[in-house]
Structure to design on (166 residues):
C-alpha cells in the first residue's frame, strides 16, 4: 500500500493528514460520487470493485447522551443494542445528523473515523479482523482510504466488538 500525504494528495483531508502524521501505510481510492445514490457505502464498494464486507461505513450514535462512532461493514447494519453494550451503555440511538457533522467536522456520507474534530469513542466491528485491509471514508464523499484494521483500531483507540448485523 502506498502512503499519501497532503502534499502528495491535493485536497487532503484531516483523515489522510492523520494517517500520514502517524506514519501509517494506507492507499487512497477516489471515485465519482453520484448524489442520487441511495447508499454511500454500497456506491463506494461498487465503484472501487471491492467486496462490500471490506468497505466499512462510519456511523455516529448517541449512547446514553454520549456520541460514539461505530464502524461497520456497508453490507449490513449497526446493532444499536450491541454498540451500547460494547461501550458499557444501556441505550443507543442514531445521533442527530447535524450533531454528528458538527462534532466530527465531516459531512454525512463522508464521515471518517480518522481525523475527527473531536475524538469520539470508537467501536470497530469485529468482522474487520477477517481482512488484511479494509476501506473507510477518507473524509469526503467519493474518497476512501484502505488500511489494515489493526492500524485503524490503533489510531482511533477503537474497541473491537460484534456490532454489525447482516
Amino acid at each position: 500500500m502506498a502512503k499519501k500525504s497532503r502534499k502528495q494528495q491535493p485536497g487532503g483531508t484531516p483523515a489522510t493528514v492523520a494517517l500520514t502524521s502517524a506514519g501509517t501505510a494506507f492507499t487512497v481510492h477516489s471515485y465519482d460520487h453520484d448524489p442520487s445514490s441511495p447508499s454511500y457505502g454500497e456506491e463506494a464498494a461498487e465503484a472501487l470493485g471491492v467486496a462490500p464486507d471490506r468497505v466499512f461505513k462510519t456511523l455516529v450514535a448517541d449512547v446514553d447522551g454520549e456520541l460514539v462512532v461505530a464502524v461497520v461493514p456497508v453490507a449490513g447494519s449497526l446493532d444499536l443494542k450491541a454498540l451500547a453494550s460494547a461501550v458499557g451503555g444501556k441505550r443507543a440511538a442514531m445521533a442527530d445528523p447535524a450533531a454528528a457533522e458538527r462534532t466530527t467536522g465531516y459531512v454525512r456520507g463522508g464521515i471518517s473515523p480518522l481525523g475527527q474534530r473531536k475524538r469520539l469513542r470508537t467501536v470497530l466491528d469485529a468482522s474487520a479482523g477477517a481482512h488484511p485491509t479494509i476501506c473507510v471514508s477518507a473524509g469526503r464523499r467519493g474518497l476512501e482510504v484502505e488500511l489494515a484494521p489493526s492500524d485503524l483500531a490503533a489510531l482511533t483507540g477503537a474497541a473491537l466488538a460484534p456490532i454489525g448485523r447482516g
Summary: The beta strands are 27-30, 56-63, 66-73, 77-78, 92-94, 121-125, 134-140, 143-147, 159-161, 164-165. The helical segments are 14-22, 40-48, 80-86, 97-104, 149-156. Confidence is low (pLDDT under 50) at residues 1-10.
